[in-house]
Backbone:
């Protein structure tokens, strides 16, 4: 992090108002936000989804997405008002003076072109240097971003490298014309924690090296704490507060800012027992010919919560599919409530099906968009319990109350619900079967921090009231700390360890657990620096 | 098809025995399944058999004037391929150009009128478009001939001149579809994140369309082009009829009238394999234009 004692103003955004058109009318997205950025400084822009942070970041380039327009305000970049420039004039600044790093690198690279051509395209277009020199420079950038095989990686196509590598190549692409400002728009949100650390450190060191100013947009406070000199918090298109990073972390002024890391403060005392609701023993499973689970054994104590953690590809969700019978195992057995159950879904009794329910990550795709809440929750009630008419309706309303909603929701369609409400309806649907075991597959990953907290609290309350057992699949360690009794760590289709939360989270750890846990960003601005020092020593 | 060659050629007044005699001579009295396999094995050896018409017994003549199916078809096929080829050379570049430019200036007056006009041309049947052309360019303003009467001695220049109206008709009928699909394939891709990324790295409108969107749109565009090529070849039946052009479509229609099954079968085989080959071609283009399929992980 650089000090900004030079204090030379690079970007000054004054009273920005932006409207967006959706659902047949114009909405206010930004309602008069100011922003100042000095040369060589990194500003963190945080907020939940819908706060307008991405819109603000793009507006800093004088760009608005199709369907949005700048109503009012000035965007002074080096003294020029970008809001007043024509497309033609702005194009000369985009990609050369200001560049952009998008959230999903996989979707943001053109699948039809080689990475090297895309990396140097902006600098090439502006004829900053001859192509050969730009290529050599790009290789050097790849090297300093610690990409493997920096000489040749540029000759590959986007689908041939991993997500973390793509994100670093996109940083190289942004840096190639040596811009004065880079907009990082949630660049690590789609990555695993272990990959995130590598990308963060690579981005930070390269921004430092060229003393580039940056706006870093994210919803994750702990991440922004590692990157930014200053943090600005947005909500509903307005500024909540802004201060130096250390000040913001140690002493947030607004209630809202404090609530942003409330999930991290949710704690649950751990308990366990030897009475297993479910045991899976020596399970192997495969998709076609590729084997994804190797000898997995897990015990789930009755009425408790077991969290399964690991990065993507570790086999967490596959384990859930095996338990539900969606993917029959090739080896091993599943013991549910003392009885062995069939690997195949079709061979399980209705009663067995009823007792195991699952809640999915994306509530948007897990519900039929044409069905009302009443139909969604009512169906399993009818199907499993044979209840109809008035009794059924009473039961649906009872479930709605249980998830802290009410009967006014009965006739709504999923599209008329917020993300958190949708996930609550999915929970109610699982509860409607009156199950003994609920598998929660990344149920909070798609939700904002505050909404996450509400869902986690609800799940805990339901467990206390109903004694239901949870398997909680997640890659988010903060969630694990908040909700679990026991933890299972998985890596590449194998169980690394299982045990009480306190045992797993405290040293000594197996190597992989150590790597995973140490990669989880903390609310300490020195965390990344310390971690990198520790790892390199 | 009701009836066969024998009943068709001998007419209503034919006696039962003469029909039977002709049938047995042509082999029509054999069981269909062995007949099919016999025909199939001959086809694999390049023998499409002889046409039923022009046989000595039928004509009551001494010499057998029946012709080989291949002999009948080849000159007709050449004519049709000429017509289709010229139409394709006009229609495809024009459709691509119009589609790309409509995507480039989408929702402009130009885009709206181009897509609107293409909808009209796609919706009009060939015979209607053909007669409109005849009315305009042959009757009211006699620039081109109404009848595209070519034979083997017609020079190339004359061929172009004679086939102008059929070419216009086929172009107009197929171009709209290709143009609209090109436009929508590109516009579809324009909402991708990598297009926004390209814009934000300073790419011009032209670059965005031609360098970033088009390479990813080749697969769907190739699909629609090949479908239209096949359509031109096969749909030329109607156009050939309207302009009295001696192509394979006319031959097939004529043979259906006469129940001249060997010719009909050969034509059907050619049409079917055209579809198969062109679709295969479209799939190949889809693979070649997609690095994901061309370069494995």
Residues:
């Amino acid at each position: 992090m650089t000090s900004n004692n030079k204090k030379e103003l690079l970007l000054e955004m004054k009273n920005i108002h932006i409207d967006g058109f959706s659902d047949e009318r114009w909405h206010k997205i930004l309602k008069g936000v100011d922003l100042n950025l000095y040369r060589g400084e990194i500003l963190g822009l945080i907020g939940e989804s819908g706060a307008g942070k991405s819109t603000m970041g793009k507006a800093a380039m004088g760009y608005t997405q199709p369907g949005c327009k700048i109503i009012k305000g000035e965007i002074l970049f080096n003294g020029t008002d970008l809001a007043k420039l024509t497309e033609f004039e702005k194009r000369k600044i985009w990609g050369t003076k200001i560049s952009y790093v998008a959230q999903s690198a996989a979707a943001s690279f053109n699948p039809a072109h080689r990475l090297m051509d895309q990396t140097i395209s902006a600098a090439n277009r502006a004829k900053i240097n001859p192509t050969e020199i730009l290529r050599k420079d790009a290789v050097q950038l790849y090297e300093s971003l610690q990409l493997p095989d920096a000489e040749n990686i540029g000759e590959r196509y986007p689908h041939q490298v991993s997500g973390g590598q793509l994100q670093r190549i996109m940083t190289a692409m942004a840096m190639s014309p040596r811009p004065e400002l880079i907009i990082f728009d949630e660049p690590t949100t789609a990555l695993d924690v272990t990959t995130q650390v590598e990308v963060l450190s690579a981005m930070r060191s390269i921004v430092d090296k060229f003393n580039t100013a940056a706006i870093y947009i994210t919803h994750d406070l702990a991440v922004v704490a590692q990157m930014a000199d200053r943090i600005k918090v947005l909500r509903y298109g307005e500024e909540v507060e802004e201060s130096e990073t250390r000040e913001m972390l140690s002493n947030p002024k607004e209630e809202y800012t404090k609530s942003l890391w409330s999930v991290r403060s949710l704690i649950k005392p751990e308990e366990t027992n030897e009475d297993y609701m479910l045991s899976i023993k020596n399970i192997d499973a495969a998709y076609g010919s590729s084997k994804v689970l190797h000898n997995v054994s897990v015990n789930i104590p009755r009425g408790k919560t077991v969290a399964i953690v690991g990065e993507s590809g570790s086999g967490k969700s596959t384990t859930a599919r095996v338990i539900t019978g969606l993917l029959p195992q090739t080896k091993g057995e599943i013991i549910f409530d003392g009885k062995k159950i069939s690997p195949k879904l079709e061979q399980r009794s209705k009663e067995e099906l009823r007792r195991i329910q699952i809640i999915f990550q994306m509530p948007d795709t897990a519900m039929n968009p044409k069905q009302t809440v009443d139909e969604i929750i009512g169906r399993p009630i009818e199907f499993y319990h044979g209840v109809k008419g008035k009794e059924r309706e009473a039961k649906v309303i009872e479930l709605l109350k249980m998830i802290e909603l009410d009967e006014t929701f009965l006739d709504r369609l999923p599209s008329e619900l917020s993300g958190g409400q949708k996930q609550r309806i999915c929970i109610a649907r699982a509860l409607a079967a009156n199950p003994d075991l609920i598998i929660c597959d990344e149920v909070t990953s798609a939700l904002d921090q505050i909404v996450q907290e509400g869902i986690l609290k609800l799940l805990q309350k339901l467990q206390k009231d109903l004694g239901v057992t949870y398997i909680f699949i997640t890659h988010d360690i903060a969630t694990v700390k908040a909700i679990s009794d026991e933890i299972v760590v998985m890596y590449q289709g194998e169980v690394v360890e299982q045990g009480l939360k306190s045992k797993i989270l405290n040293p000594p750890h197996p190597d992989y657990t150590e790597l995973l846990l140490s990669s989880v960003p903390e609310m300490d601005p020195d965390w990344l620096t310390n971690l990198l020092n520790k790892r390199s020593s | 098809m009701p009836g066969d060659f024998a009943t068709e050629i001998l007419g209503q007044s034919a006696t039962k025995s003469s029909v039977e005699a002709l049938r047995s001579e042509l082999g029509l009295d054999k069981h269909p399944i062995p007949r099919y396999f016999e025909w199939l094995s001959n086809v694999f050896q390049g023998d499409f058999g002889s046409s039923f018409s022009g046989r000595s017994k039928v004509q009551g003549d001494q010499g057998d004037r029946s012709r080989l199916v291949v002999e009948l078809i080849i000159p007709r096929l050449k004519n049709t391929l000429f017509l289709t080829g010229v139409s394709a050379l006009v229609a495809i570049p024009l459709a691509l150009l119009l589609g790309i430019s409509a995507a480039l200036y989408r929702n402009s007056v130009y885009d709206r009128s181009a897509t609107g006009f293409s909808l009209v041309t796609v919706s009009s049947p060939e015979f209607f478009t053909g007669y409109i052309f005849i009315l305009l360019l042959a009757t009211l303003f006699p620039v081109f001939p109404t009848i595209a009467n070519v034979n083997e001695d017609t020079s190339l220049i004359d061929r172009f001149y004679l086939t102008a109206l059929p070419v216009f008709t086929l172009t107009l009928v197929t171009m709209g579809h290709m143009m609209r699909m090109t436009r929508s394939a590109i516009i579809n891709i324009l909402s991708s994140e990598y297009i926004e990324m390209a814009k934000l790295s300073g790419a011009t409108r032209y670059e965005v369309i031609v360098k970033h969107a088009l390479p990813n749109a080749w697969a769907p565009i190739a699909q629609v082009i090949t479908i239209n090529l096949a359509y031109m070849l096969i749909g030329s039946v109607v156009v050939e009829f309207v302009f009295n052009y001696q192509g394979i479509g006319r031959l097939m229609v004529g043979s259906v009238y006469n129940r001249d099954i060997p010719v009909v079968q050969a034509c059907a085989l050619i049409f079917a394999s055209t579809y198969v080959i062109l679709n295969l071609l479209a799939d190949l283009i889809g693979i070649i234009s997609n690095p994901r399929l061309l370069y494995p992980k």
